[in-house]
Amino acid sequence: MTLTPASLRDLLRAAVQDSSPVPVSVHWDVSGGLGWWRGKAQECMFSESTASPGSWSADEDAFRLSAFFDACRDDSEHVEALRDAVMDRFPSDGEEGLFVAVARKVGPFSALAYALGPDAVLRLPGWYGDFLLDAEQVRAQLPTAEEALALTGAQRRDAVELVLRGGTSTCAEKAVNEV
Fold first, then answer.
1. Distance separating alpha carbons of residues 43 and 34, to the nearest angstrom
2. Mean of the pLDDT values across residues 34-61?
């Protein structure tokens, strides 16, 4: 969605108007969590399900990574107000050419982050999937974001495998060999 600079300023002003000036506290050791994730980024966090052949089950590390992503999400009142204000800008009549995806109880950013790994995620704008950029910021951030998302060949295959099956093809082979 495109907003004029004035509309963006109005949204930001309205979102923080009634919020407390107290800084948001992060309930997670972000640098410690990132260090742990870097150490686990290439490891399999899922195993083949014994109860449902062809399915995958989350290991303890997958739950820990999910908790890390959840803890990094800013759910403060002013950020929620801004999210609501931005979503209110989308037309309710389903304007032609507009695509909006909503995933209840699912974190699409978590799947992307898991596939990309910590270093690529840190090159993306914003904070763990949340960002609102004006046109100048988009131009400035776009090359870095494109670089972080530019996956080809084996990298792309492994990222898709991570999202779809919970592990790289090496992870899947390992899981099959261990069963």
1. 15
2. 83
